[in-house]
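User: I'm designing a mutation panel for Pilus assembly protein TadB and want to avoid disrupting the core. Could you give me a predicted structure to guide residue selection? Please restate the sequence first so the numbering is unambiguous.

Assistant: Good idea. Sequence first, for numbering, then the predicted structure tokens:
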Amino acid sequence: MTAGWWGAVLGLVAAAGVLLVVARLHAIRRPQLSIRVLPYLHDLAGFDRPAGAVTSTYSPLPAAVGVFGPPLSTLAGWVERVLGGAASVRRRLDGAGLDLTVADFRVQQVVWGLVGFGLTAGYALLDGLGGGAGVVSSLVLCLVGFALGVIGRDYHLTGQVRERERRILREFPTVAELLALAVAAGEGPVAALDRVVRRSGGELSRDLARVLGDIRTGEPLGDAFDAWAASTSQPIVARFAQGIAVSVERGTPLADVLHAQAADVREAGRRELIEVAARKEVLMLVPVVFLVLPVTVFFAFWPGVVGLSMTTP
């Protein structure tokens, strides 16, 4: 076969791969049965959340584990033995709101590592064809790529936790005010919590939905909020949950407590904004000092330099 035929075969294979990926993405984006049935279940308790608030929990991880289960599980166990820190991973998974176990996360780390290994292996192969590095250095480079992939998934999890915490802090004042308005209108704590969960969406609303589910299964309201305060990593949310629990147990006005909590969060946000501006003050001077000031000096002194060069013999 000539080079043209080989190019045609490779092009057909690449096109078939792209078509398979597009078809699979189309199948993944198809609405689930639960989302299509949900509008007809509004008369049932807990099923009147808007359809847009229901998030798909599809993940290609079970399929990958089903096909390559034993090798991935073995590599995941090796990563767990080398890195450790299962308790920290579990805490961050809960903080990120991911419905994953530690073993599933280790498998994801292995997948990321294999992607890094494949990229570095491709680079090493191209370098080797060009007469570059040897076999040992290429193998070391591939191992480094695998390690960077594993570590990169861990850093990505930390970034997911921080992003979710920022979203919760943005949602917190609004949710607290809604709870305060519902309680001030005469509803009980559980009814107000149910109304806010049904009418809102977001990360904080999902946490409140879990608390509401614990209450409906028979757990006392104060204990449910205490458990939420113990599980969260944000001091503001922990104080909010503890304030509600103490207010319910001691009979203090819950609406006043919620208004005070929302005001505290807004004040904390303003203080954080001022602190960030103070830290960025030096960086804000960089364009002024290195861009605006040199141009100003140039325009101020350049005519005089030109004039001196024209007058001097």
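For picking mutation sites, this is relevant: The mean pLDDT is 78. Residues 166-268 form one domain.
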